[in-house]
Amino acid sequence: MASPNPKILRQFARVWKTSACPVLAENGIEQLDDLERATRLAITGVMKDAPASRDTAAIFRPALEGSILMIALHKALRARGMATEESGKLCLTIMERHIAATPSILKWLQRRGLFTKLAISRTRRAATQMESQPDNQFKFDVVTSDDGSGNWGFNLTNCAICSLTRAQGVEDFTRYLCDADRIMSDQFGWGLKRTQTIAKGGSHCDFRFRKGEQTEMET
Length: 219
Prior knowledge:
The chain has a three-stranded antiparallel sheet. The protein has a two-stranded parallel ribbon with strand order 3-5. The relative contact order is 0.13. By secondary structure, it is mainly alpha-helical. It has helices at residues 6-26, 32-47, 61-78, 84-100, 104-114, 117-130, 160-167, 174-188; strands at residues 139-144, 152-158, 193-194, 205-209, 216-217. Helix 1 (6-26) packs across helix 4 and helix 2 packs across helix 3. The protein is globular and about 55 Å long.
């Protein structure tokens, strides 16, 4: 079995130290050293079914890499007998704490960059390139606004994260990975509006980014 990407392991180390370990301890989870080792091992297993990050459109890479870590932790917690709902809520709390610690200047830069013509152009070009990728990758079409607002989005017709949870036998965990987008939108100012997702029964995921708007997402 291939070794996990060193970048993923470095990211896991940061998340575990600053967010995961404190949140788990606060919620009464014991033997955290053992859980950390189990999660690291699980990352290797998740990675074998995940598409290569370098071949993934840039706008999806953070979600893919974060999902790999969350799936691995969920599997380690599930091995201890924890229910998916409890594990999912813990993973979202960990993610929220981790993202909240991002420096304000980086959040501002990410928000500013999202609503540029360059970001839209690169994402549209990536959408074309992704058409030839395997079925476990993201496939999508970019949608732009005609009102001059700079708002835009995409319709995701094939979700790599759904494919990954299905391959890993944790499809019931997918909805929590979808819910993570609410945290990202609130923290980075995406103004995300989304009415459906593939994981929750929709034909596609309709992401719309709106300047200065509040997050509105499917339940």
